[in-house]
């Protein structure tokens, strides 16, 4: 997709300074004078536009909204609506210190859902003004971290929101063709796009799993090392220990790897997913086996996984055709799923699951053969590190292929 990540040069004022400047459509002449803005200039138009938007009637369905004129005020609004000052900020990050990038094509490299309770989110967007003004509101959007790669080599960890309700909200607008059946995705703070960019573990309806069906997939392996338990247990694994973790692993504080660490720790420490009997993150293969054995009630277990006919496991993103679909017979509650999550070494998010299981034979255009472990969920409510797809109503199970690094544990 064509995107432009641009930073404004607007200054963020301290609260005392910001509060001393009028912020009202009734005070526009005084505002222009205080800010030395010519009356007929484009900046004046920005001021009039933003003041009008900030003073508009509340958006239907939004619990709370406001415009804030300082970072301190933003924190107060977020804390008030989240009922705690123990909060954290998420944002889009670029691998360029100056944040200057051209408008260019970006390719989606990964999509990672963020697990945040539906109403536990406050969004703040910068709006046009001579200094930093943010339009803030509560939101129920689904959140994702999308890794984007630009044609000039720019890497972006893009905070992305998907709205099931495409009715215009505060400073948003619906896009052409949006009907409410497909969520509308917004890369924060820029471009809109239909939510179609899944890579790797594409989600699809079970009705689409038939002989001859084709879909675009990318089976990719990470280079993360799996540590022995003794080594893994010696390394802190807690959001409270991030500085120590970065030091132990020699990870630069502002790097994409540091962002992966923060993301995974937050997900692993999130509240238990409703409907999941047990879930955890494990830092070693031995811990994974212990968790699976404990929940399956026996150590007589075996692991299922996706297999490729390539020793190096390296394949391009390409079209695959379904050649066969074979059900795997396992009792409903006798399954433990473990998915690898982003981290410098192998970390797995494990949880019990009641999904239906299949082995699907896929044939790629380059001759690659894949025996893909496939899970189909009748309940499309998001589970640990999973998410629902557009149009899913619960009547048709939602399925996904597993990467070759994941493991599904069952009794022998």
Summarize this structure briefly.
By secondary structure, the protein is α+β, with helices and mostly antiparallel strands.
**Shape field:** elongated
Number of H/I helices: 8
Distance between the termini: 46 Å
Helix content: 10-25%
Secondary-structure content class = alpha+beta
> Nearest-angstrom radius of gyration?
24 Å
- How many domains comprise the coordinates? 2
Low-confidence stretches: 165-182, 184-201, 380-394
Query: What's the helix-strand series?
Result: EHHHEHEEEEEEEEEEHHHEHEEEEEEEEE
Strand percent estimate: 25-35%
Largest sheet: 7 strands, antiparallel
Q: How many strands in all?
A: 22
What does this structure look like?
This protein has 412 residues and is an alpha+beta fold. Helices cover 18% and strands 30% of the residues. A hairpin with a 4-residue loop joins strand 7 (142-150) and strand 8. Strands 1, 3, 4, 7, 8, 9 and 10 form a seven-stranded antiparallel beta sheet that branches. It comes from Eragrostis curvula.
Properties at a glance:
alpha+beta; 412 residues; 8 helices; seven-stranded antiparallel sheet; elongated
Helix and strand layout, with pairings?
Elements: E1 2-3, H1 15-19, H2 28-35, H3 42-54, E2 65-68, H4 71-82, E3 93-94, E4 104-114, E5 122-127, E6 133-138, E7 142-150, E8 155-163, E9 184-187, E10 192-194, E11 203-205, E12 214-217, H5 229-233, H6 242-248, H7 256-268, E13 279-282, H8 285-296, E14 301-304, E15 307-308, E16 318-328, E17 335-341, E18 347-352, E19 356-364, E20 369-377, E21 398-401, E22 407-411
Antiparallel strand pairs: 1-4, 2-6, 3-8, 4-7, 5-6, 7-8, 8-9, 9-10, 11-21, 12-16, 13-18, 14-22, 15-20, 16-19, 17-18, 17-22, 19-20, 20-21
């Amino acid at each position: 997709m064509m995107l432009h990540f641009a930073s404004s040069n607007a200054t963020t004022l301290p609260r005392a300074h910001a509060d001393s400047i009028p912020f009202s459509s009734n005070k526009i002449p005084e505002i222009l004078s205080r800010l030395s803005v010519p009356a007929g200039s484009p900046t004046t138009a920005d001021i009039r536009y933003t003041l009008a938007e900030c003073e508009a009637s509340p958006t239907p369905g939004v619990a709370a909204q406001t415009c804030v004129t300082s970072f301190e005020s933003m924190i107060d609004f977020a804390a008030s609506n989240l009922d705690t000052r123990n909060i954290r900020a998420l944002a889009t990050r670029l691998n360029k210190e100056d944040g200057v990038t051209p408008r260019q094509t970006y390719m989606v490299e990964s999509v990672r859902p963020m697990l945040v309770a539906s109403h536990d989110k406050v969004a703040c967007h910068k709006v046009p003004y001579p200094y930093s003004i943010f339009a803030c509101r509560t939101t129920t959007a689904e959140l994702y971290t999308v890794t984007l790669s630009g044609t000039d080599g720019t890497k972006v960890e893009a905070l992305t929101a998907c709205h099931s309700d495409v009715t215009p909200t505060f400073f948003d607008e619906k896009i052409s063709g949006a009907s409410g059946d497909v969520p509308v995705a917004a890369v924060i703070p820029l471009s809109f796009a239909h939510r179609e960019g899944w890579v790797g573990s594409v989600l699809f309806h079970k009705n689409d799993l038939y002989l001859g069906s084709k879909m675009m997939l990318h089976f990719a392996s990470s280079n993360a090392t799996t540590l022995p338990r003794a080594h893994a247990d010696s390394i802190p694994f807690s959001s409270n220990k991030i500085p120590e973790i970065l030091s132990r692993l020699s990870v630069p504080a502002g790097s994409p790897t540091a962002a992966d660490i923060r993301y995974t720790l937050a997900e692993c420490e999130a509240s238990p997913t409703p409907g999941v009997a047990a879930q955890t993150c494990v830092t070693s293969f031995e811990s994974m086996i212990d968790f699976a054995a404990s929940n399956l009630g026996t150590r007589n277990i075996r692991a299922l996984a996706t297999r490729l006919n390539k020793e190096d496991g390296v394949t391009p993103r390409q079209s695959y055709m379904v050649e066969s679909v074979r059900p795997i017979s396992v009792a409903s509650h006798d399954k433990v799923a473990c998915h690898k999550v982003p981290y410098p070494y192998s970390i797995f998010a494990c949880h019990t699951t009641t999904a239906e299981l299949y082995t699907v034979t896929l044939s790629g255009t380059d001759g690659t053969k894949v025996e893909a472990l496939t899970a189909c969920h009748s309940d499309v409510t998001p589970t640990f590190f999973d998410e629902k797809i557009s149009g899913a109503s619960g009547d048709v199970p939602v399925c996904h292929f597993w990467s070759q690094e994941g493991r599904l544990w069952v009794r022998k």
